[in-house]
Amino acid sequence: MDLHSLLGRHEPDLMASRWDEGRFVTSCTICGRPMVKPPGGGWLLARPRR
Ligand SMILES: [Zn+2]
Questions:
Q1: Ligand 1 centre and the CA of 11: distance in Å?
Q2: How far does the centroid of ligand 1 lie from the alpha carbon of residue 22, in Å?
């Protein structure tokens, strides 16, 4: 497990954010994981869809 994931301080790549199905999506500039921003909320790591 890497420290970045442990601390949970992900930095959304705002320059690359885009609108997708009612929310903004982008990726973390540090680890590259997908992030989402629901309307009125803050940036979160995206959860894989099942
Ligand atoms: Zn990250």
A1: 6
A2: 22
Judge whether 44 and 36 are in contact, CB under 8 Å. yes
- Residue 47: the pLDDT is 81
Take residue 42 and report the two structure tokens written for it.
């803050």
Q: What confidence tens digit (pLDDT) does each residue in 4-47 have?
A: 877 768 999 999 999 998 999 999 999 999 999 998 999 999 98
What's the Cα-to-Cα distance from 25 to each of 13, 16, 39, rounded to whole Å?
A: 9, 8, 11
Which strand ranges, in their side-by-side order, compose the sheet holding 34-37?
18-20, 23-27, 34-37, 44-45
